[in-house]
Design a protein that fits this description.
about 40% helix, elongated, single chain, about 190 residues, Rossmann fold, alpha/beta, seven-stranded mixed β-sheet
Length: about 190
């Protein structure tokens, strides 16, 4: 009887450790809006290429493309096509298109007739592994620079995915990468329009 109680206590303790360390899902991080900015005046935006800090080489372009499509779907702003943005980058001579200076942002916006520029950083993108469990994870940050002054007027970040307790216990896979990418981007877009 004493061994059964000890075994049960060990199982409960192990489950508590797994529950605390295995929690995952969406984590809503920071958001900041410039209180002096009239966001209703932003009608046309350019989305610059995203910086990619993940190990997957195409992560920046994948996330940027998904973001542009989902932002266009809101019908809240007109998103300039990638070809126009690329021509604007070349004409403005942006040194690092993923992180323009204030002066570069102003010059770029005046050339392509955009009210604002959105930049982004993909911090994590891909699979997270723990034992036999594998799940996708994404962590992104974005900024909006106002076109006339080049100052940052909005910033936000989001994380989605990871290995859940269920994934750890069953050794299963998490949600598909497309689903968690769309969820993280939708969270960012929701924060933009609030």
């Amino acid at each position: 009887m004493k061994q059964e109680v000890m075994w049960l206590m060990k199982c409960v303790a192990a489950m508590c450790v797994i529950m605390v360390s295995g929690c995952s899902g969406g984590r809503h991080l920071d958001v900041w809006h410039d209180s002096t900015m009239d966001f209703a005046s932003v009608k046309t935006v350019a989305v610059l290429p995203f910086a990619n800090l993940s190990q997957l080489q195409q992560a920046g372009s994948r996330v940027r493309d998904t973001f542009m499509v989902r932002l266009m779907a809101t019908e809240g702003v007109y998103v300039l096509p990638p070809g126009e943005v690329a021509r604007g980058i070349a004409r403005a001579g942006l040194g690092d298109p993923s992180a323009p200076s204030q002066e570069e942002a102003v010059k770029f916006c005046s050339l392509i007739k955009a009210d604002a520029v959105i930049t982004g950083v993909v911090r994590e993108y891909g699979d997270a592994r723990s034992g036999s469990a594998v799940a996708g994870i994404i962590a992104i940050s974005m900024n909006m620079l106002e076109g006339q002054t080049g100052r940052v007027v909005w910033t936000s970040s989001a994380e989605e995915g990871g290995i859940s307790m269920k994934d750890r216990l069953l050794g299963s896979s998490g949600k598909p990468m497309n689903d968690i990418t769309e969820k993280a981007i939708d969270d960012i877009i929701d924060k933009l329009f609030k």
